[in-house]
Specification:
With 761 residues, the chain is an alpha/beta fold. Helices cover 58% and strands 12% of the residues. The strands form 3 sheets. Strands 8-9-11-12-13-14-15-16 form an 8-stranded mixed barrel, surrounded by 4 helices. Strands 2-3-1-6-7 form a 5-stranded mixed sheet, with helices on both faces. A two-stranded antiparallel ribbon has the order 4-5. The radius of gyration is 41 Å and the shape is elongated. The model is unreliable at 1-5, 161-169 and 255-266 (pLDDT under 50).
Length: 761
């Protein structure tokens, strides 16, 4: 159903005043008005209403600072016209007789209004000119004013007999024409220079209003004998209604910035046209008189024309050269404000946009996006593949945002969004759709990848700075990574405290190895049902000098984020291999048959990792068959890098264990593609094994899969005898958990082995 638009009182009032004043003026062409006070009051009210509309636009929060300043100055100019129209009314009706004369105070008021209009236009960001440009602009304006004044006087005002109308003078019409022409020249200059975020349609409306005001000078002959019809009665309303429409259009078009036109260095024809017009007027006067003056006028005109033609050819050549320079400057400006690789906004342009939005007071949302494990892609496949992935992701971001949104690349694999006028619910909906699109499989460098992105989100505050906004978004983004990645997280003030704690802990973690604060414990992996030792899993622990034992759930994610996991993982591998060698030497055939070591995705992505493991085993004299490499399914899925590394390790004789199966993306195809020897079923499934639950169904199903694929299944997190018995009946032959033993020091493992040997004998 079509819904009628709500009545707009200010606009209705503006058109009503305009219609009243215009109708009163037109009626006055054949009707004599004895007391022309009412139309002047209407003009004053229209000036006040124009001031109100300009100030409404100047206070519109969605506009940037420069454009709001422009409308504020224009509003001041309109406010000056309020006393100006009252002063003109007093000049017209305040004396003993009606007159069209304009007093000096009124002219001063008009001059102030004109100065404010010119200031508003020439202070726009796109009108940034050199001193030479300002000089040429002043000269062009002076030439136009002189030419217009002379021609209007010669062809119009000088031919009117004002003697029959002593209360009407040519000054009133001439002042309006001169003021209007000066404003019109400036409007045209700015329009061709580019209006930036000032709506170009609004600028054209203002220019049309000024042009129509100037055109009212042509009606002076009609009003010369009608002192009650001052030209200002029609000139003011025309320009003011145009200003009202322009201000309202700007508010409607706040989200459609007008790009500046390419700066084409064309020479101005205005001075030359003025010369032609003035010389034509001179020749019209002199030629009919003949004689020496006519010949001199003709000769001077001919020489002037030749000089002008000579100068035009020179200016044309200079313009071509300057156009080439301008093209280079525009290209340089594009390079500064756009990212060279992706073509979206650059960091500097984005921070500038942030500052402008903050200055304008408009609420908006900032989102910081970071690719998870992008370094692995660069290291394994090369920077060309990484660049192709960044280009694909930036294209997806750009295509799925609104026109008023901003996307930029901060550097590396970090992108950022600026989302104006979005609520939290709107933002969540947009990010849900955005992540679904961005994280879809993508073909980059001939390889299919499934990128994952972590996003930190924060809303602007009145006292924010660009740096503070990005800092909060960065903190929230790392919180998203800590939570597992591939998601977005809103900033919460508590994150600052946690981030400070993490920063201090990260600094301490960098020194943990050199300070001998890290150590290994080993959790037994046992055979069911009797519980004999089948192997051990090496687990790293951190004894902090102040905080005591720090949970691996705390410091392992820290190490993953800052890259220390590679150094820590290398240390764990070295310690575990060395301990395996000692057990072989000290315990002989009673040594643990398998020692499992957890390896992170970052370690798998390190160039030469299989060779590093082989060299370590060879130096320690350890049989590769004794070492098991444990990886999570999320570390293997995605880039395909990890699969190649695991195949190389398996070729050396190492066993491969897939840890925490079922908690990640759980692709069963991974069990076919990956050389898995051991499948470790996560504790979350084992917990429900003794009840009639979906977890129990999954546990029962997995044992059939592992048997069919000739793998060994290990149940993790077994805490009760009932769970152990149920798992054994389901077909599981290996398990680990607190029911059997907690993680133990290497000496306790030796005592456990000794105790089991005693039981066997």
């Amino acid at each position: 159903m079509h819904v009628l638009r709500r009545l707009d009182p200010p606009l209705v009032l503006a058109f009503a005043l305009f219609a009243f004043v215009t109708g009163w003026f037109l009626t006055g062409l054949w009707h004599v008005w004895d007391h022309p006070v009412l139309p002047w009051l209407g003009v004053t009210a229209l000036s006040a209403l124009t001031t109100y509309e300009c100030w409404r636009t100047a206070r519109y929060a969605r506009l940037d600072t420069d454009i709001r300043t422009f409308w504020r100055r224009l509003g001041i100019a309109c406010a000056i016209l309020v006393p100006g129209s009252l002063s003109t009314m007093y000049d017209s009706v305040g004396g003993p007789v009606l007159t069209q004369e304009i007093s000096v105070p009124t002219q001063i008021v008009f001059g102030l209004a004109l100065a404010m209009i010119l200031t508003a236009l020439l202070r726009l960001p796109t009108w940034r000119r050199t001193r030479g440009d300002w000089l040429r602009f002043g000269l062009d304006t002076g030439i136009i004013l002189i030419t217009a004044g002379v021609l209007v006087w010669h062809y119009s005002l000088s031919r009117i007999d004002f003697s029959a109308s002593p209360n009407s003078t040519p000054l009133s019409g001439l002042v309006i024409i001169m003021v209007s022409f000066a404003s019109l020249v400036t409007f045209v200059k700015v329009a061709f220079a580019g209006a930036g975020r000032l709506d170009r349609g609004s600028l054209y409306l203002l220019a049309v209003g000024v042009a129509l005001s100037a055109a009212t000078g042509s009606i002076v002959p009609l009003t010369a004998d009608r002192p009650y019809l001052a030209p200002g009665l029609i000139a003011f309303p025309v320009s003011e209604i145009a200003a009202i429409l322009a201000a309202r259009r700007q508010r409607r078009r706040w989200d459609a910035p007008t790009p500046a036109r390419p700066a084409s260095r064309r020479f101005s024809l205005v001075p030359y046209i003025s010369v032609v017009l003035l010389y034509a007027a001179v020749l019209q006067v002199e030629i009919p008189q003949s004689g020496e003056e006519a010949r001199m006028a003709i000769a001077a005109t001919a020489v002037t024309v030749l000089v002008v033609l000579r100068q035009l050819t020179t200016l044309r050549d200079n313009a071509r050269l300057l156009d080439a320079v301008d093209a280079s400057l525009q290209q340089l400006d594009h390079q500064v404000t756009h990212d060279a690789l992706t073509g979206i906004g650059s960091r500097s342009a984005y921070t500038g946009e942030l500052s402008a939005r903050l200055a304008g007071g408009e609420p908006f949302v900032v989102a910081l996006l970071d690719l998870d494990d992008f370094k692995v892609i660069n290291d394994r496949y090369g920077h060309a593949t990484g660049d192709a992935l960044l280009q694909a992701i930036s294209g997806r971001l750009r295509d799925r945002l609104r026109p008023e949104d901003t996307v930029a690349r901060l550097g590396g694999d970090e992108f950022t969004l600026l989302l104006p006028g979005m609520t939290e619910a709107d933002t969540d909906l947009l990010l849900h759709e955005l992540l679904a699109a961005v994280q879809a499989p993508v073909l980059a460098g001939g390889l299919e990848m499934a990128p994952r992105i972590s996003v930190g989100v924060t809303a602007s505050r009145p006292d924010d700075s660009a740096g503070e906004l990005l800092r909060r978004a960065d903190v929230a983004m790392y919180a998203a990574k800590t939570a597992g990645g591939g998601r977005w997280t809103w900033f919460d003030p508590i994150m600052d405290r946690l981030a400070d704690d993490d920063a201090r802990l990260t600094a301490d973690l960098r020194q943990a190895i050199t300070r001998d604060e890290l150590f290994l414990v080993y959790q037994p992996i046992v055979e069911l049902p009797h519980g004999r030792l089948a192997g051990v899993e090496a687990l790293v622990r951190w004894r902090h000098p102040e905080h005591g034992l720090v949970s691996p759930a705390v410091f392992i994610p820290l190490a993953e984020r800052n890259g220390q996991i590679v150094e820590i993982g290398r240390w764990v591998l070295e310690q575990a291999v060395a301990q395996t060698a000692r057990w072989e030497r000290d315990l002989g055939p009673n040594a643990p048959a398998k020692v499992s070591v957890n390896v992170s995705a970052r370690q798998l992505g390190q160039p030469g990792f299989p060779a590093e493991v082989a060299a370590l085993l060879s130096a320690a004299g350890v049989d590769p068959a004794r070492l098991t490499v444990e990886v999570t399914e999320t570390a293997v899925l995605g880039t395909g890098v990890a699969l190649e590394v695991l195949r190389a390790l398996a070729a050396q004789g190492l066993s491969i264990a897939l840890d925490d199966f079922g908690t990640g993306q759980s692709s069963l195809s991974l069990l076919v593609d990956c050389p898995v020897d051991w499948l470790k079923v996560d504790k979350s499934f084992v917990d429900g094994v003794t009840s009639d639950s979906p977890q129990a169904v999954i546990v029962d199903s997995l044992i059939g899969i592992t048997e069919g694929l000739r793998m060994q299944a290990v149940a993790e997190g077994v805490e009760t005898a009932e769970q152990a018995e149920r798992l054994y009946r389901a077909g599981y032959r290996f398990a680990q958990g607190f029911h059997f033993a907690r993680p133990l020091a290497e000496s306790d493992i030796e005592l456990l082995i000794a105790a089991q040997q005693v039981q066997l004998t």
